[in-house]
Amino acid sequence: MKNMKKVELIIEAVYTKRLIDLFTNHNINGYTIIKDIEGYGGHGLRTADDGSDVFSNIYVFTVCDQAVFEDMEKDLRKFISRYGGKCILSDVMMLVGKDK
User: Which residues pair with 11 in a beta bridge?
Assistant: First the structure.
């Protein structure tokens, strides 16, 4: 098992590429994106039945080492301040490879 940081974001879909570029700039090459999520928040009700990405939200998560997160934290804060969204952080353990 390996201690990791899980970074979860809910953002407007139109900013997906900007977030992925941020990840790439910090050598994060693995992530999961779930499109068309629904929920209620600061901008009211967001539904998944919109015909375009203009008003839809996505959920993105990745896991990384603590040091990678610390290097990326300032840029994530800037991203959220500029484009909005939510960022949830968790300390997690990831099961890797065979137990020796």
Answer: 58
Q: Identify the burial level of 22 via C-beta atoms within 10 angstroms of its C-beta, where 0-12 means exposed, 13-18 middle and 19 or more buried.
A: middle
**Whole-model pTM above 0.70?**
yes
- Residues 33-42: pLDDT tens digits? 999 887 777 7
Which strands sit side by side in the sheet containing 57-64, from one edge to the other? 32-37, 57-64, 2-12, 86-94
Say which amino acid occupies 33.
Answer: I
Looking at every residue in the chain, the average pLDDT score rounds to 89
Please state, as a whole number, how many other Cβ atoms lie within 10 Å of the Cβ of residue 23: 20
Domains along the sequence of the chain with CATH: 2-93 (3.30.70.120)
Instruction: Specify whether the CB–CB gap between 53 and 29 falls below 8 A.
Output: no
11: tokens are 């953002």
